[in-house]
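Following up on my earlier thread - several people asked me to post the actual chain instead of describing it. Fair enough. Here it is, all 146 residues.
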Amino acid sequence: MAKQPGQPVPQPAAASQTTQSAPAAEPAAAEPEQKPLTAAEIQPVNNWADILAAYQAVNPAVSGSLAESSAYVAGNNLLIVAKNRFFLTLLKNKENALSLRETVKQFLGAEYNIRAKCSEPEEQTSKAQNLLQKAMDSHLDTAVEE
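Reply from S.P.:
Thanks for posting it. Predicted structure:
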């Protein structure tokens, strides 16, 4: 019996039952802590533009949020670096995630766990700071002291 990477090792009595009854149906369901990836383990997806073009026909709204994105494969994970932060919200929708996973599978021939991050820095802090600065410049009472 081979241990599948990314899944905990069950007790010997349960191992034969678990492995035979559910062969990796939900690979992302029970993840132990992940070790950091090395640069050699991360490979760019060279046909990402083709995948996005096909995904445009399947789900135009989500595919639009992937403009100027890039993708990388590391093991059984597909890492998407999107410029649009809204993509992260859209990916949380199960139907959007499944449709993207299926489109990727058609091109890469394997099913991947999709992980995503935004390449643009978080802007919420600077907007809050700007608002506080405007309030202080207008001599409004704030809880912030200089």
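The CA atoms of residues 6 and 31 lie 6 Å apart. That should answer part of your original question.
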